[in-house]
Amino acid sequence: MNIEERLARIEALLAELLERLRVIEEVTVGSSVQARLAVDMVIAFSKPVQEAVKLAKVVASALERLGGSDDDLAKAIIEVLAANGPLSLRGLEREVRRIRGHASRSRIQAKVGELERIGIVRVERRGRRMVISLATEE
Question: Do the Cβ atoms of 92 and 112 come closer than 8 Å?
């Protein structure tokens, strides 16, 4: 690789870094809630910062629809679905327990029912299996 190619590579990496910093700045200036959620997504789900910022916006929007509730289980469910996409009840239970430490299947299922009534999650029944996703997902 000659010097021009190396410089072009460095310029491309710097441009990518600047874009990532711009996104981080946009979130931190826009909402401390989104910034905190983005950090949580990076830590809990090992997501790249740019992806975590996008997911934090989705999670913050869903949490706003809860009306400012301080419901840790609902927050965990929303974060898991935002990070992982549609999941079965068993998969959701496993991921919620991984980031939260505890939650019974019956409590998770009841909370999913509440979130479905509010319009935050969508539940699709496939035979005996439930597939749960955020209502904002296309």
Answer: yes
Amino acid at 8: A
Q: Check if the beta carbon of residue 51 is closer than 8 Å to that of residue 73.
A: no
Tell me 66's DSSP state.
T
Assigned CATH for 3-134: 1.10.10.10
Burial 21-45 (b: 16+ CB within 10 A, else e): eebbeebeeeeeebbebbbbbbebb
The residues spanned by each domain of the chain are 3-134
- Residues 57-67 have pLDDT tens digits of 888 888 888 87
pLDDT tens-digit readout, 26-54:
666 555 677 777 777 777 777 777 787 78
- CA 109/CA 130 separation, integer angstroms: 10
Structure tokens at 120: 């935050």
